[in-house]
Amino acid sequence: MLVFPDEDGDKSADSQHDRLGVLPDELLLQVFETLAKLGTRKDLCNVSRLSKRYHRLSDATLYKQVLFQTPELHLTFSESLGRRPRRGSAINEVTLAYPASELSQLALGAHVHGSHIHPSRFDGLSRTLSIMSNLEKLDIAVPSVLLHGVGSLFNGPFDLSCLKSCKLFYQCPNDEYWDLRENIHIFAHPELEELTLRRARFDEQGFNFLERPHETALKKLHLIECDINDDGLSDILELPEALEEFVMTHQEEPEPELEESSDSVADYIQALRSQSESLQSITIDSPSMTSRKVLRMREFGTVKTLRLNWDYQLFAKSSKKPRLHSVGLPPELEMLEFFNELGTDAEVNDLLLALIESKSIVARHWKTMVVVEGDDAILRQVKAACKENGLQLDIIGAFDETDSENDGSIGSDGGDDKDTDDDSE
Known about the structure:
The structure is a single chain. By secondary structure, the protein is α/β, with parallel strands linked by helices. Helices cover 31% and strands 16% of the residues. Helix 12 links the parallel strand 12 and strand 13. The strands form 2 sheets. The protein has a 12-stranded parallel beta sheet. It has a 3-stranded parallel beta sheet with strand order 5-7-9. Helix 3 (41-48) runs antiparallel to helix 4 (52-62), helix 10 runs parallel beside helix 11 and helix 13 packs parallel to helix 15. It contains 17 helices and 15 strands. The termini are far apart. This is F-box domain-containing protein. It holds the Pfam family F-box-like.
């Protein structure tokens, strides 16, 4: 059992009873981090009161991850950082998550006891973040009244120079989309690697020419239920030096309706072309989108994973016009997934089967296709084509006990019994 010294104990007694005191700072930090995980933050706070050294080292753990669930807590913490600014450098992760109902004029205008921040300075909440010089992860989910204040952190010289990951979501009245223009300079952050935007809106204007930054380190971009114009997206995607992952999702019936977004998958594939030499994964989960053109993605030489909702988003729906171009899969594609069922377009069914049969020519590294249950007739043909051409077919929602034993895979390496059963039916 460890016994810590009392404040009135002499130094010789301290050295005899404080067994932790002989450890170097690096090991003490590991001990404190373990205490924070296995015990409670209160336990670590008690340890921090035992000496100045413990207080300094425990701060690095106590303030490594900070969660603000109320604006009052945020303001109070701002005052704490004002008195002890070095604590700001100990913070690595911050989450701001409080609903609009808690950010009323009363909550913002009321004076926080002991705080010197003027009630009218609403941007004091966001200004607190600028003190966190070593912040690496920032998760914003707050009312839109803070939109401009937080956005100013990204506009100009970067206070958050170590930021690697950022999520932005502002709660708007009537669940409207928030204007990305106020936070557009997050795309200019030179060190940011992962960015997630939720329910943002962005028009076709892109960056102003005078404010266009140099190349950035962005690797992953996720657009969750956003209303993003494809031309505007094309403009901001010229900034990352080597984007690797792109994800865009929409509800089946977006609310409110999308005003800036295109209704064609092909337009967004075109917007991604500036990153065609680095992208490895593309996911466009937008059930309401169609495609007026067959996708041509031969330029995307590093894409290994492609996920879409419908097979006709890849081939374009049937029309009276002749198809002058065949689908061009990424040459290094390994996995193709459709989130919705196959067999909704007879002409596309034939094109899909022809694509599988020409697998060795159009995508010789193509290993897996993932689909969901749908029309039995087309699934039976797709299974046969995949088996014949050495393509593994995974059917989500159609696994039985036999499939589970084979890791849920149906194709050339497994699922022969299931194919036989289907044929016998």
